[in-house]
Amino acid sequence: MYLCSVKALVEHIVSRLTPYYPPEEAQELAYWVIQETTGMSRFDVRTHKGTKNIPNLNIIIQKLCEYVPVQYIFGHTEWLGLDLKVSPATLIPRPETAELVELVSSRQPAVGSQQSALNVLDIGTGSGCIALALKLKHPEWTVSGLDKSREALDIARINADRNKLDVQFFEADILTDTIGQYDMIVSNPPYIRPSERSTMTENTLRYEPAAALFVPESDPLLFYRRIAMLHAAPVLWFEISETQGEALLVLMGEHGYKAECLYDMYGKQRFVYATYNS
Ligand code: GLN
Predict the structure, then answer these.
(1) How far apart are CA 212 and CA 89, in angstroms?
(2) Per residue in 232-247, pLDDT tens?
(3) What is the CA(91)–ligand 1 centre distance, in A?
(4) Best mutation site among 101, 213, 215 for ligand 1, i.e. most ligand atoms within 8 A of its Cβ?
(5) Residue 124 and residue 128: Cα distance in Å, rounded?
């Protein structure tokens, strides 16, 4: 039982997490835990003078020390104005993927006369984050998402309900199934080579779904190649590995797409925008 000042709680959590996380991250996690368990706002956590009791604090800290992502501990995360359920069946939405959504929104394609009512597909939707964020920004669009994981689709559908967004999610394996025609496809497919494991955090390696992260060492672009081959949309948006930009531009060119790389907030090549002129 920890009935103590919020400041003391923060210090306690930070000191327990310090062996496992860099200082700023330990601090962020402490704020996160207190906000979640007390319902306080971030501002209140920083300024609160009273005392609080967090009944399961030890269990929560223990999980964090085992590198369970805080989003999985509490089962949800806030992202681009959405409250999203997440579990180890889905990736935790990333800040760079939020940038992808912003880019897609800022460069709406002119597809004939349907410019205002695009039909958009999110491939490998996971928690549904990209599809739902696009629908939230563009209610006039028809947005759907596919995934091969039923567990992920269950979560995506819960997220559509939770955020009151009309997005359809369906099961398909993009590598083997065919899909219909769309005005635009957006995808953050698996793109990490196993040899890049050493650059990843324990949180991701231990708990996030490997199937959503990793590609075969020998063929890291397979998802992009398949999507380009299908010619299922005249506009494609991808999140990519910073190491694969040039190769991906060549690949898109081979399938008749004119493509360009865009950079993320860390200055890394992170997105590809490709258009097809028939
Ligand atoms: N950007 C994610 C990460 O670094 C990977 C997402 C993906 O493979 N599509 O963990």
Answers:
(1) 9
(2) 999 999 999 999 999 9
(3) 8
(4) 213
(5) 9
47 Cα–ligand 1 center, Å: 35
216: left (phi > 0), else alpha (psi -120 to 50), else beta? beta
Q: Which of 182, 202, 81, 201 is nearest to 141 (CA)?
A: 182
How confident is residue 50, by pLDDT bands cut at 50, 70 and 90? confident
Phi, psi for 239 (deg, rounded to 5): -90, 140
Distance (Å) from CA 192 to ligand 1 centroid: 7
For 225, the token pair is 């190649």
Place of tokens 């091969």: 148
Q: Read off the DSSP letter of residue 174.
A: T
Q: Is the CB of 94 under 6 A from ligand 1?
A: yes
Q: Is the CB of 204 under 6 A from ligand 1?
A: yes
Beta strands per DSSP E along 177-216? 184-187
Write the pLDDT tens digit of every residue in 76-112: 999 999 999 999 999 999 999 999 999 999 987 665 5
Burial status of residue 162 (CB atoms within 10 A of its CB: 0-12, 13-18, 19 or more): middle
Q: Write the class of the CATH domain 77-276.
A: alpha beta
Q: Is the CB of 191 under 6 A from ligand 1?
A: yes
Determine the Cα–Cα distance for residues 230 and 225; give it in Å rounded to an integer.
9
Atom of ligand 1 nearest to the CA of 204: 10
Domain ranges for the chain: 3-66, 77-276
Q: Which of 96, 130, 191, 224 to mutate to test the pocket of ligand 1 (most atoms within 8 A of CB)?
A: 191
Phi, psi (deg, nearest 5) at residue 147: -155, 155
